[in-house]
Each structure stands twice: as structure tokens, then as C-alpha cells.
Amino acid sequence: MSKKPIMHKARKRFGQNFLHDPGVIRRIIRAISPRPSDCMVEIGPGLGAITEHLLEEAGELDAVELDRDLPPILRTKFFTYGDQFRIHEADAMKFDFTSLCRDDKPLRVVGNLPYNISTQLIFHLLSFAGQIQDMHFMLQKEVVDRMAAGPGENNYGRLSIMAQYRCQVESLFQVPPGAFNPAPKVDSAIIRLTPYTELPHPAKDIKQLEDLVRTAFGQRRKTLRNNLKGLITAEALEAQEIDPGLRPEKLSVADYVALSNYLTSST
């Protein structure tokens, strides 16, 4: 008597939307282009739609999964890979990704990220940028647009600056809701983040830069003069050749790093 297939219902509290469209999956794998020598890491493998192809191409994989019901399903599905398929039952938001580095090889990170925590998770992953070769993520299209936005665009902000400070950011292609089960109520997109081996605009104090950017965008509609008045004077902004009457979205990554370095040097 044949066994019934293992079923798993997507859980809203984990933000689960399982990818099932073969055409979209193939396109994602082509964009990633995994190789046997790569240290591949998948965040939230779900039911293994992308996992299967990553294992075929790379030969081994580390997966980080929070839903405790999924690892037994995945271990059964990919049992032939033995120790080459390693599942870490953990919260990616708190996970130490450096623990997955081996033979001094950088990590290649892949994930269909839960939309409700995607921004916080990306900030967490950026803290490991020095150990990561690249990252390919499925995200809500709105988040991808924010990450890839340039100065002067409406959706340019804190996420754009901090992602572009550490990485080259490429918006690759959109994914329709019908590619998932259940279908989300928003469009999705694939993004590639490639950490710089040498930062184009290095900050003397990264925490100072993070605090500056957070403060600058505290109230987007107000000017730099208003938002930064407790941090830097209008005269000091002018001395850095920045108009205090500008809104925060008008400054480039280089501008924010220059201001941050000025503050670090003057304290």
C-alpha cells in the first residue's frame, strides 16, 4: 500500500508562502548559479523547492529553519545526501552565520524571506557581510525597490543606504503571487546583494553612521537642519558642503559617510 505524501500547511505566524512555480525556480537557480565548491546557505527552505536544485548543483547545503515541523520532512526528502545536507533548527534573526564558514570560503546565502521580518533579517545578515560572497533573496517587491533606490527617489531611505554601504545591490526580476502557495497579496522580487571586498566609502565608526542615518530619516518630511539639530549644526553641514535645507533622501551614501566621519573626528 502506497504511503500518503507528507502534507504541511503554510503557517501565517512564520510568514510562510511556499514557492511552487517550476519556471520561477529555474530562473532563480540560474541567477544564483551554484557550484560544487560553494558554501551554500539557505534560510527558510520550506518544503525544499529551491533546496532540491541547490543540492543538485552544489552537492551540499546548510539550511536554517525555524518551523520545527519542516526539518523531518526535509531530512526524509533529501536523505540520500546524508551529512552533506545539514539543517539548523534555529531563528535566522539570532543565528551566528560565521559558524557555517569552512575552509576560509565565503558563504553564498539564499532565501525566500518571510516578509514580516525581512528588513530586520537583512540588517542582521549585513553584520556578517565580511564572511559572505553574495546573497539572493525573494522579498516583497516594495522592499526590493527600497533597497535598490537611489538618492532623490521617494523610497530611498535607511535600508537603501545601509544595504548600499556594504553591498552592490541588484534588483533582478519580479515574481507574481501565483508562483506561491498560498499566494501572497503582494508582488515579490528577487534581489542580489554582493558585499564589497573593499568599501567604496568606509566609515570610521559604523555605529555612528547607523545612528546618523536613523536620526536623519526620523521624520522624512523634515529637513536635515531639523532632523539633525541635536547631532550637528546647520553651520557644520554647510562646512561639509551640504545644504541644511535638504530633505534626508537627497543625500548619497558617500554624503552620509562623510558626515559620519566628520562627527567621529570631532568627538
Summarize the structure in words:
Helices cover 33% and strands 19% of the residues. The chain is α/β, with parallel strands linked by helices. The chain has two domains: 13-195, 3-Layer(aba) Sandwich (Rossmann fold); 206-265, Helicase, Ruva Protein, domain 3, CATH 1.10.8.100. A seven-stranded mixed beta sheet has the order 4-3-2-5-6-9-7. A two-stranded antiparallel ribbon has the order 1-8. Helix 4 (118-126) packs parallel to helix 6. The longest helix has 13 residues, at 253-265. The termini are far apart. Residues 1-16 have low confidence and may be disordered.
Describe the structure using short key phrases.
single chain, 267 residues, alpha/beta, Rossmann fold, Helicase, Ruva Protein, domain 3, 2 domains, seven-stranded mixed sheet, two-stranded antiparallel ribbon, 9 strands, elongated, disordered N terminus
Task: Please give a quick description of this structure.
The protein folds into two domains: 13-195, Rossmann fold, CATH 3.40.50; 206-265, Helicase, Ruva Protein, domain 3 (Orthogonal Bundle), CATH 1.10.8.100. Helices cover 33% and strands 19% of the residues.
CATH-level-4 superfamily name of the largest domain = Vaccinia Virus protein VP39
Coarse structural class:
alpha/beta
The fraction of residues assigned to DSSP E strands is 15-25%
H/I helix tally:
10
User: Whole-number average pLDDT?
Assistant: 89
Q: What layout of secondary structure does this protein have?
A:
Elements lengths: L17 E2 L2 H11 L6 E5 L7 H8 L2 E5 L4 H8 L7 E5 L17 E6 L5 H9 L5 E9 H8 L9 H9 E9 L4 E2 L6 E8 L10 H11 L7 H4 L6 H6 L13 H13 L2
Parallel strand pairs: 2-3, 2-5, 3-4, 5-6
Antiparallel strand pairs: 1-8, 6-9, 7-9
Helix pairs in contact: 4-6, 7-10
